[in-house]
Amino acid sequence: MRILIVGGGYVGLYSALRLQRRLKAELKRGAAEIVVVSTDPYMTYQPFLPEAASGAISPRHVVVPLRRVLNRCRLIIGEATSIDHARRTATVSTLASEETGRTEQLTYDELVLAPGSVSRTLPIPGLADHGIGFKTVEEAIGLRNHVIEQMDIASSTRDPAIRDAALTFVFVGGGFAGVEALGELEDMARYAARYYHNVKPGDMRWILVEATDRILPEVGEEMGRYTVTELRRRNIDVRLETRLESCADRVAVLSDGARFPTRTVVWTAGVKPHPILAATDLPLNGRGRLKCTPQLTVDGVTHAWAAGDAAAVPDVTAEEPGRQTAPNAQHAVRQARLLGDNIAHALRGEPLETYAHKYVGSVASLGLHKGVAHVYGRKLKGYAAWFMHRTYHLSRVPTFNRKVRVMAEWTLAGLFKREIVSLGSLEHPRAEFELAAGGKPPGHPKGSS
């Protein structure tokens, strides 16, 4: 009995962990096999990406190595390119496929489809050339290096146009990713400015662009208004009901007519279902997510399961009919555990359980000692919300190993000064050697952009 799990994110990791425990006897005697297909050998705990970008947490500690924690599973580093569920077959492109030109055909008995989501972009001129995402740990660290490098550029030139463009940072999207990334990086850059003789915090311009009339809708309207006020108090330019229309030629053009020469455009304006969903014979809803039942099976299909961002799961706790659970980490982790339990139930002929979890609220960090929260109907802001944010996510980050390491880094950060070093050369590690060997390095030898 082979269980194929496509995706190594929240659902992929937690469902595999659950199945390892529930099917321990079957795995030991070889009656069952769990195969996990993931594009990365690690799971990224995304709520910690803003703190990784600001340097509060080491990037190695916001990821969980899949091989270590899924020691009873077979891990394949690759990407599922198509799934024929009628034939119980998945086509997987692995790292070796680039060398051999051949894909691998995997057969399975039970399918867990949890590829997550990808960034939702728009056909905006210049976005593909100059935009920076904020969904992976590589993007978070790259953005940190980029921000510090822009401060280096501004410090080393007397040209006001180059200086202003380097010190203008535009973030598009007022959800968790955009607001938390902006808050943490502005905090970090403000601190780093004390070590530059000619760059002051007031020289930098931080702009948040949001197409709707509010930010952080998950924390409620009141806390959203408080967040706008708090950001503006820090001289952050928050522009609501505004869209980015172009960033070609390194000039951000907004729908309200404003134009900002800038070398930094961070795109965090939402996500969309993973493309693999459209390459299956499974039923999708109007938004491209898998139609699921409250038991986390794919609706109308046997031996197929889904949860998380890829799944449209009915919310049985909602008062209004037809409502679905929100595609967030809070639901994904809980759904993954139930999904693992239900697969074990199905294999043993036991009745399935129904997913029922009422959303308890949200917390968001706005930088060091600053935050907002709306949890169990209670509204918190400032230090109390920031502390709750850290406490909640510390309790949710997988493995005791990671919890201890993150706690240790927070403790050390409270005792010593922040690190403000840019390691941009990591993005092109062979550049200096290629230059020495007579080749042409990609980009700047030290990775500046």
**What's the story with the biggest beta sheet?**
7 strands, mixed
Rounded mean pLDDT is: 90
| CATH homology superfamily of the largest domain | FAD/NAD(P)-binding domain
- What is the count of DSSP helices, taking H or I runs of 4+ residues? 14
Low-confidence stretches: 444-449
Query: β content, as a range?
Result: 15-25%
CATH class of the largest domain: Alpha Beta
Architecture per CATH nomenclature, i.e. the level-2 architecture of the largest domain = 3-Layer(bba) Sandwich
According to CATH, the fold-level topology of the largest domain is FAD/NAD(P)-binding domain
The count of strands amounts to 24
Report the span from N to C terminus.
50 Å
Number of domains: 3
Rough outline: globular
* Helix share bin: 25-40%
The SS-based structural class is: alpha/beta
Order the strands across the largest sheet as they lie in space.
7-6-5-2-1-8-20
Q: What's this entry about, in short?
A:
This protein has three domains: 2-119 and 272-347, FAD/NAD(P)-binding domain; 127-269, FAD/NAD(P)-binding domain (3-Layer(bba) Sandwich), CATH 3.50.50.60; 419-449, no CATH class. Helices cover 33% and strands 23% of the residues. The protein contains 14 helices and 24 strands.
